[in-house]
Design brief:
The complex is a heterodimer of chains A (61) and B (416). Chain A has helices spanning 2-13, 25-33, 51-60; strands at residues 19-22, 38-41. Chain A has 61 residues and is α+β, with helices and mostly antiparallel strands. The termini of chain A are far apart. Chain B is an alpha+beta fold and 416 residues long. Chain B has helices at residues 3-20, 31-34, 57-69, 76-83, 140-164, 169-177, 188-204, 209-220, 223-243, 304-307, 322-325, 329-339, 366-372, 401-414, and strands at residues 23-30, 42-45, 89-92, 98-99, 111-117, 123-127, 167-168, 253-259, 262-267, 275-278, 283-286, 299-300, 343-352, 358-364, 378-382, 393-397. In chain B, strand 13 (343-352) and strand 14 form a beta hairpin. The chains are: A alpha+beta (61), B alpha+beta (416).
Chain lengths: 61, 416
């Protein structure tokens, strides 16, 4: 299903897509397996999503 | 001014002091003569505070070795008993303007390097423990070698240092970085440089030729000489980081250290308070026949090098070290680049040729560590989990995030 969608999109865009994947690496691997050129951006939520730390950072940073 | 503005201003001041510090080797002296708070029955150790009962085996072994070395006990079992009796005061090196390598044991008559920060006037000290106490070896051989260092090597080196009028360690560090050292686990260039600097003054001393030859050989190569490089680096970094202590409102880390059980940090604006959590175990390469499962959790005050922005932080300048700690030269570059995310500034005097002479990242900000989730990277030697072994390997390790979270929480409370 994913491969078909990508093929359609490529035809639609008129050019080969280049992808930036932010965060979850499973998407990166899936795209690479399909021969898609993709750049990984390692991103995590600030303070790992810890609400106590986020509150303090909001005040101090 | 806003809270954020106050912290920003304070951090700039703390890091400015750290960068501006100018360590110089002035002397070698017995610890009890120079280290504040040292007594005949005090033994200092690496890492944050820890009681005897909770110490790891290599640290206990190192303390036993020190008690034998000091003549406070005649036999090992007597030393073990004395160490656990409450008769000996244990205290972190860091609380006495000192640092120590691996177990980091500093005892009263040990010769210590005496370094003065010529800009801010503070002193720092590092014990010349190279009889392998650092790995908890309390054998006769280890005790006798430390006595040789105290009674023969140290006086000769001291005379040479005095003859030279001191040794500029900041320039020494800057040159070593351009020779492929990171001055934590790789000090090869630095040792050669120091030998070159001190050799003419050694020859000018009045000691007899055979003694001078022994000291020259010690400096020229072989395992003991590797230690002088890390000692000079650590004590220089301690002098610089201590200059950055107690800047009101600053969130910059001024000490990172490990006692083989816990990892501890201190923060400039939070005074003497320690923030501690269980230490992680380094992962790396091991000297045969040792293996990963033999490794003790992280130990030593040598993370003062990373605190200062060298060691693992400047590792991009030392690609050859990957043969010791594992990884690739590209990994080394990536580590340095990553550390730029959690630091306040770049040091214009400690530069990295491979990165077009960018300054090394310096001034770890606890706020940025917690926000990004990026922990400082430390490249380190690895101890065996049982006393009596030499260093068994080298690798990479990161502190526990909890110490930075605790520090941030304390800052949050400070600002209501």
């Amino acid at each position: 299903m994913g491969v078909c969608l990508l093929t359609d999109t490529t035809h639609l865009m008129g050019r080969t897509l280049k992808v930036i994947n932010i965060g979850i690496r499973e998407f990166l691997v899936s795209l690479q397996d399909q021969g898609v050129e993709v750049v990984q951006v390692d991103w995590t939520p600030p303070a790992g999503g810890d609400s106590e730390m986020l509150e303090i950072l909001d005040r101090l940073l | 001014m806003s809270i954020k503005g106050l912290i920003s201003e304070a951090n700039q001041e703390a890091v400015k002091r750290m960068i501006a510090a100018h360590p110089a080797l002035e002397d070698i002296a017995p610890a009890i003569n120079v280290i504040p708070g040292m007594t005949r029955k005090t033994i200092l150790h690496a890492g944050p505070p820890i009681e005897w009962d909770n110490m790891c085996s290599p640290m206990k072994g190192a303390i036993v070795g020190a008690l034998l070395f000091e003549g406070l006990a005649d036999k090992p079992d007597e030393a073990w008993r004395m160490a656990g009796s409450g008769e000996i005061t244990f205290s972190p090196n860091h609380e006495h303007q000192a640092v120590g390598s691996m177990a980091g044991v500093t005892s009263p008559s040990m010769p210590v390097l005496v370094v003065k920060n010529k800009v801010h006037g503070n002193y720092a000290y590092q014990a010349m423990d190279i009889g392998n106490f650092s790995g908890g070896d309390y054998s006769d051989q280890a005790v006798k070698y430390n006595m040789l260092v105290r009674d023969e090597f140290a006086p000769i080196l001291r005379a040479a240092i005095n003859e030279a009028g001191g040794v500029d360690l900041k320039t020494w560090m800057a040159k070593a970085f351009h020779m492929g050292d990171e001055l934590h686990n790789r000090c090869t260039g630095g040792i050669a440089l120091f030998s070159r600097i001190i050799m003419p003054y050694l020859i000018r001393t009045s000691f007899e030729k055979e003694s001078l030859v022994k000291v020259a050989e010690y400096l020229a190569g072989g395992p003991p000489s590797e230690w002088i490089g890390i000692f000079l680096s650590m004590v220089s970094c301690k002098a610089a980081c201590d200059a950055a202590r107690n800047v009101k409102n600053s969130s910059i880390v001024t000490a990172m250290c490990r006692n083989g059980v816990n990892f501890g940090i201190r923060v400039s604006g939070l005074g003497d308070q320690w923030f501690t959590a269980p230490a992680n175990t380094p992962r790396g390469l091991f000297y045969p026949p040792y293996k990963q499962e033999d490794a003790n959790p992280d130990m030593g005050d040598s993370a003062i090098t990373e605190t200062r922005g060298v060691g693992g932080f400047i590792i991009a300048t030392a690609p050859a070290i990957t043969a010791l700690v594992g990884g690739t030269a590209r990994d080394a570059v990536n580590y340095t680049l990553q550390m730029m995310e959690i630091t306040e500034s770049r040091d214009p005097e400690f530069t990295i040729p491979a990165l077009d002479f960018q300054g090394t990242p310096v001034g770890i900000d606890v706020r940025k560590v917690v926000e990004t989730g990026i922990l400082p990277i430390i490249d380190t030697g690895i101890n065996h989990k049982e006393a009596g072994h030499p260093e068994i390997g080298a690798g990479m390790v990161r502190p526990p995030m909890d110490v930075f979270s605790q520090a941030l929480r304390a800052m949050g409370e400070r600002f209501g």
